Amino acid sequence: MKFKRGLVKRKMAKIIDGKTISLDIKNEVKQIAENLVEKGVKPCLAVILVGQNPASQVYVRNKKTACEYCGIKSLSYELDESISEKELLDLIDKLNENKECNGILVQLPLPKHIDENKVLLRISPEKDVDGFHPYNVGLLSIGKAELKACTPAGCIELIKRSGVDISGKNCVVVGRSNIVGKPVSMLLLAENGTVTICHSKTKDIKAVCKEADILVAAVGIPNFIKGDMVKEGVVVIDVGINRLENGKLCGDVDFEEVEKKASYITPVPGGVGPMTIAMLMKNCIVACKNQNNI
Q1: Tens digits of per-residue pLDDT, 171-222?
Q2: CATH number of 149-273: 3.30.300.30, 3.40.50.720, 3.30.870.10, 3.30.559.10?
Q3: Among the options 26, 73, 127, 130, which is catalytic?
């Protein structure tokens, strides 16, 4: 994609519709799943929920719905909050050994008495459909990962399926979390982007952001990226999802200000959010094919 600067002032950015793109991906997954079933292989995802966290219950329900749509068998384990760490680890061990189960997802956060890192490490790397296991993170860092962290992978799909070429672009990522910031930086690098990571210690973050052709905001601060922090024609991917005091959802980007200057921008909600589950479905298919040597 070529940016046209100084010719015609844009009235508004093109909205990157995560709902539509995620549906496209789920339809692709559905077709692959049907082909696998014809070969006698049924993709299967196990989802483990500990406790009664309302947000987690919604996420798990959405994942089950996506599995049903895509033709992926869903195993659901809804466990009491009082379950011991050992009992949870024993369940993961059984699912690791279950050849019919291709992917294992433990919904976070977990109760305080359970060590999240220990739980995530217990999941077999080949069934790690969240892409959080250090083995898969290591593969990601050398450009060899097949099971990629879902939200970062979804960001890349949003950019590419909108017709934007990442190669050679200045890519700025605001945020350095292990869940989004770091992996999305590595994925942008794999697409030949020139990547800069900003964080709380970055000097003159505004100046760095203004150099971005592609900006990914994943800092967790409502409306952090303002209009005067971006240049004309920037492509903006807003990973943040924050609830304001009035109950409204907003991202890490001040949408009204930045939309006036961006060429493409994701909304919140309806941008990155739907992509996470779509990429989870894709990872489950990848895991299934790998485990069955297909």
Answers
A1: 999 999 999 999 999 999 999 999 999 999 999 999 999 999 999 999 999 9
A2: 3.40.50.720
A3: 130
The answer to whether the bond into 109 is cis (omega within 30° of 0) is yes
User: Residue 165 corresponds to which tokens in the numbers above?
Assistant: 């070429």
* Dihedral sign of CA atoms 109, 112, 114, 118 in order: positive
Rounded distance, CA 133 to CA 215, Å?
Answer: 26
Catalytic: 63? yes
Q: Greatest CA span in the chain, whole angstroms?
A: 63
CA–CA separation, 251 vs 257, rounded Å? 13
Whether 24 sits among the annotated catalytic residues: the reply is no
What does the DSSP 8-state code read for residue 115? Answer: -
Other beta carbons within 10 angstroms of residue 25's beta carbon come to 20
Q: SS3 of 200, please?
A: coil
Of the residues 26, 73, 107, 238, only one is catalytic, namely 107
> Of the listed 63, 169, 182, 282, which one is catalytic?
63
Establish whether 107 is a catalytic residue.
yes
